[in-house]
Write a structure and sequence with these properties.
Elements (H helix, E strand, L loop, with lengths): L2 H12 L5 H8 L3 H13 L3 E5 L2 E4 L1
Helix pairs in contact: 2-3
């Protein structure tokens, strides 16, 4: 499964604000991989940050 899709699905499943560390913990992915994928998702405007350092799927 593509990393970005896995992160988005995790965010939607949890239905709460998540930081990169928690996403890495829930998905089992490396933190650097999560950070890189989240940067791409942010550019694509697929995720938003209503609170500093916490993210949710649009």
């Amino acid at each position: 499964m593509e990393t970005k899709i896995q992160i988005l699905e995790t965010m939607k499943k949890e239905a709460t604000l998540l930081n990169a560390g928690k996403i890495a913990e829930l998905t089992g992915l490396d933190r650097k991989t999560v950070d890189k994928a989240m940067a791409e998702l942010k550019k694509e405007e697929a995720i938003v940050s209503p609170k500093r350092c916490y993210w949710q799927a649009k």
